[in-house]
Design brief:
This protein is an alpha/beta fold and about 425 residues long. Among the domains are: about 200 residues, D-Maltodextrin-Binding Protein, domain 2; about 70 residues, no CATH class. It has 17 helices and seven strands. Strands 1, 2, 3, 4, 5, 6 and 7 form a seven-stranded mixed β-sheet that branches. The protein starts with 6 loop residues before the first helix and ends with a helix.
Length: about 425
C-alpha cells in the first residue's frame, strides 16, 4: 500500500515502529552485571541526527529497564566533539555513553580514555562478524583493543546530475572509468552547461587519499606512526586537484556553506563525492527541488572509500556502576535489526549491521535518484571498503594537508615542496 503521508511524519513513524519492534529485544546480561538498575540515571551525549535515533529507541530500553532514567545531551556536531574532547581530557562532566564521528575516533581512541570493550565483561570481539568489517576495524586499535562499536557508516559514492551529463553527451562510464576520465568529462560538462564538476578541488583529494591504502595503514600514518604524505598516493591526489583548479572545474566553495548549498539548488555543480548519506541531505533539505535529476555511481577508477560514520563508546573514567547499562544500550542500538533498519528508513543512517543487508528496502527505487535503486550500489561499496587504521594525530594531519593543498591551488607552491613540508610537520607530531 502506498503511503501518502508527508515525509516527516512518515519518517517519525519509521523510527517509532522500529522502536516498538525492538521493545521485546533482549540480550542476556553478563552474570558479572546482575545487580539491580533501580533508580539509576544514564546520560548519553550525541549530535544530530543520531540524537533522534536514540530518543526514538528510549521506549524500547525503558521496557527492559523501567527504573532507569535516561538523559540525552544533544549538541551541534562540532560543539559535541569539542565537549567530548574536554570531558575525556579532564574527566569532568563525562557522560556514561557518547557518540563519535569516525573522523574524531582516532583522536579519542588513543590514550584519552575510552573503555576497552575487548576485555570482560564486554567481550565485544564476539560481535565482529555481525558488522561491516571495515567499520568494526576502524574502532580497533593496533593492540587489538575494541574502543567503540559502529552504528552507521558512510559508504562512498559519486552523485551526479543526469540531466547535465545528458546535455553534454557524457555517459556514466566516461565519468567513472578513471580519475583522468572524470576530469575530462568535467571539461565537457563545463563547456556544454556552464556547471562546475565539483564544489571544491579539495573534494577529489579527500577521496583519492582514501584509496590504495595498504592493509593496516592509515590515511596519514603507517603502523609505526611514520608519516605517509610524501608518497605517490598524495602526489596523485594533489596533481588531480590542481588540474581541476587550473581548468576552472571547481566552484571554490566550502562544504556546508550557503554558496555550496545554493550551487546544488541552481544546478551549478554537476557531481558530488561523499558518503551515501549525502543523497538524503540533498533530498531532504539541501536541494529538494532537484529531486529526480540525480543518479548514484561507484567512485571513479573502481575506488571504494568511506566518508563518515557513527560509533558508540564508553568513557573509561565514567561512573563504573553505570557501565553495564551503557553497554546494554550500545548492544541494543547496534545489534537490533529493527532499530538499525528504522534509522536507515527514517534518517538515511546506512546500517553497519550486516544482518540488515537482506532487507527488501535496499532494492526499493529512490525517487530522488530518478527511481534508481541506489542502496544496492552503496551496499556493494560497504562490503568492499577496506579498513583504514585511525591515529590520534589524524585531525592535525588533515589540517596540515589541507593547508598545503591550498598553497598549491591558490599560491602556486610546487607539489613536491608542499608534500615535503607536510611530511616533516606531520612526522614531528606523530608521537605526541
Amino acid at each position: 500500500m502506498q503511503d501518502d503521508r508527508p515525509a516527516e511524519p512518515r519518517r517519525r513513524a519509521s523510527l517509532a515502529a522500529a522502536a516498538g519492534l525492538a521493545a521485546g529485544w533482549v540480550l542476556p546480561r553478563s552474570p558479572a552485571w546482575a545487580a539491580s538498575d533501580s533508580k539509576q540515571r544514564l546520560t548519553i551525549a550525541a549530535y544530530p541526527a543520531v540524537d533522534k535515533v536514540i530518543k526514538a529507541a528510549l521506549p524500547a530500553f525503558k521496557a527492559q529497564h523501567p527504573n532507569v532514567e535516561v538523559e540525552v545531551i544533544s549538541r551541534e556536531f562540532a560543539d559535541h566533539h569539542t565537549a567530548m574532547t574536554t570531558a575525556l581530557t579532564t574527566a569532568s562532566n563525562l557522560p556514561n555513553l557518547m557518540t563519535l564521528e569516525v573522523d574524531y575516533l582516532g583522536r579519542f581512541a588513543r590514550g584519552i580514555g575510552l573503555e576497552n570493550l575487548t576485555q570482560p565483561p564486554y567481550n565485544a570481539v564476539q560481535y565482529r562478524d555481525r558488522f561491516v568489517p571495515y567499520a568494526f576495524d576502524q574502532a580497533t586499535d593496533k593492540t587489538g583493543a575494541v574502543l567503540a562499536i559502529p552504528t552507521d557508516i558512510g559508504a562512498g559514492t559519486l552523485l551526479y546530475r543526469a540531466d547535465l551529463l545528458a546535455k553534454a553527451g557524457v555517459s556514466e562510464a566516461e565519468l567513472t572509468s578513471s580519475w583522468d576520465s572524470y576530469v575530462a568529462a568535467g571539461l565537457r560538462v563545463r563547456a556544454a552547461t556552464g556547471a562546475y564538476l565539483l564544489p571544491n578541488a579539495r573534494d577529489i583529494k579527500d577521496i583519492m587519499i582514501r584509496t590504495g591504502i595498504e592493509p593496516g595503514e592509515g590515511l596519514f600514518y603507517d603502523k609505526q606512526s611514520k608519516a605517509l604524505i610524501n608518497t605517490r598516493r598524495f602526489h596523485r591526489a594533489f596533481e588531480l586537484s590542481l588540474k581541476v583548479r587550473q581548468n576552472k572545474l571547481d566552484a571554490k566553495v566550502r562544504p556546508w556553506s550557503s554558496d555550496w548549498a545554493e550551487g546544488f539548488r541552481r544546478g551549478a555543480i554537476s557531481t558530488q563525492m561523499a558518503g551515501a548519506w549525502m543523497a538524503g541531505h540533498l533530498n531532504n533539505w539541501l536541494a529538494p527541488s532537484t529531486r529526480g535529476l540525480w543518479r548514484s555511481a561507484q567512485l571513479p577508477e573502481g575506488a571504494y572509500a568511506a566518508s563518515g560514520g557513527t560509533f558508540y563508546a564508553i568513557p573509561r573514567r565514567s561512573a563504573p556502576e553505570l557501565k553495564p547499562l551503557a553497554w546494554e544500550f550500545i548492544r541494543m542500538m547496534t545489534l537490533s535489526r529493527e532499530l538499525q533498519l528504522g534509522a536507515f528508513k527514517a534518517l538515511d543512517a546506512f546500517p553497519a549491521l550486516l544482518e540488515t543487508y537482506d532487507d527488501p528496502f535496499f532494492e526499493q527505487p529512490i525517487e530522488f535518484l530518478g527511481g534508481q535503486p541506489g542502496r544496492l550500489l552503496w551496499r556493494e561499496a560497504a562490503r568492499r571498503i577496506r579498513a583504514v587504521q585511525v591515529h590520534k594525530q589524524d585531525h592535525f594531519a588533515s589540517e596540515v594537508v589541507n593547508t598545503e593543498l591550498d598553497k598549491v591551488l591558490d599560491q602556486g607552491k610546487p607539489i613536491d615542496a608542499a608534500l615535503a613540508d607536510a611530511q616533516r610537520l606531520i612526522q614531528s607530531r606523530a608521537m605526541r
